[in-house]
């Protein structure tokens, strides 16, 4: 019986290789197909543009700073690496000029640290408030206002730091003796331009970035996880700190690193508020110059093209680029690590 | 005092007692007081709702629910989707408070105390009335820290106590043997069934009196489901369990009492055996036999 039943299955159907057109499965040109490939090409070009720009920037920085296109000599062909990394003064106007990068790195570092101390916790806590505590009504008003803060031009922040933060916030606290005209109070010297005011305004500037990104990831934490927290007798604060924030940690760290990258690269605000005097110091009350401020300084001044001072800006820009690149790589590593642990 | 509803006892976990009268009454059956009691073991009442209505904004989700839930027993809530059984369950530890615009009328009593009274501490309430959800919800922490969570937020610092409790709860949840060598590993690495047992262990660690379970096994494979069911039968020795389930075989296997909800109303409630084999209401019969829902 079973043999009879299997018989039809054992006869294979013959493969027909001659009748493709009649089958209706043959490839045919249509305008729709052309449009599809056109769109694909367009999307590819858009992606390519940003990649090419990055490569072009790297090429310009490296050629001007390291290789040089003959007959022009590059910065590092005239200034030794040992001077660049071992000298502690940045003094292009001296003769001979001295190019030690550390004062500029130090200035950038100082601004970044102050901005991070001010901006990261504030931004995160604002995000926690918006995501967990605020009523929908409050959120609908507060979030656009906060994001408006991100749209304020950085020059305005710079003047805000110089004209408001330094004289009306920092001075009254550190030099109350002078400010209130009372002699027996303490008086700590504060420069008119200082890293603290620059760091504070950059900190304010990155709050919207941190807040907006963090809020998105906090709100993306599934409601079931919050409910599980509440069901165990958590208060709202317990749920925020022990459940929601740890769950959203990778996203929060990404937001932090993005904000820090912004602080490192911030230019106008620090040029105006923190000053343009390269100083190797960790004192936030003294005038400093960041790497970005130096680049602005050279570009906006009357430095002739082709001089060593002009070329030095490419070297500084290269260091800046490598710094942010390193930070981005670190953030990638951190994210990969947390993904491993939590998912 | 309304602690003692007339009903049969059911001390054994696996055998059904002979029903005399359901301990609870639907809206049309308020005749429990006329029941005769002949069993030596009387069941204490744990939770009771009286004339409870529940609203999401202007939408009424529950209508006049009168239900009594006995202590140290499993009460199953069944009914078609959207019938209000989950809403009812979540009202018992005020989980609905989290959702904007919810309100209720009527009384929800835990040990005769109205849990919606003005001075009730919701956090303390939820420690007494724990909950396990449909979707397993391990926190992104280690296995150990997941179970220790309740003690951490309670501020318990005693390390040996925390360790003992974690071990005891994992053992109660039948998970200890599988995870004892990797307590420090992330809970996210566990399988779905293990995660759900972890959530049960975590709920047990706050030492609750009542466990509310919202379809705890619906996302699990049959083997994991069977383990969870065994676990529930084990746990009812010490805990009052209210379980929402779509799986009627499951309700039949693990519960003493079953309440059938439909369209926000409590249609029928009774001993599981009775409700499944001799339902009083036509609606119940239709649902159980699969004619709708």
Automatic annotation (TrEMBL), chain B:
GO biological process annotations for this chain's record?
Answer: phosphate ion transmembrane transport
Entry keywords, A to Z: ATP-binding, Nucleotide-binding, Phosphate transport, Transport
**A GO cellular component annotation in the UniProt record:** membrane
**Which segments cross the bilayer?**
none
Point to the regions of Polar residues compositional bias.
27-37
Supply the NCBIfam families for this chain: 3a0107s01c2 (TIGR00972)
Stretch list, region Disordered: 13-41
Task: Return the SUPFAM superfamilies for the record.
Answer: P-loop containing nucleoside triphosphate hydrolases
Any keyword ATP-binding?
A: yes
Q: What's the name of the protein?
A: Phosphate ABC transporter, ATPase subunit
Q: Which organism is this protein's natural source?
A: Planctopirus limnophila (strain ATCC 43296 / DSM 3776 / IFAM 1008 / Mu 290)
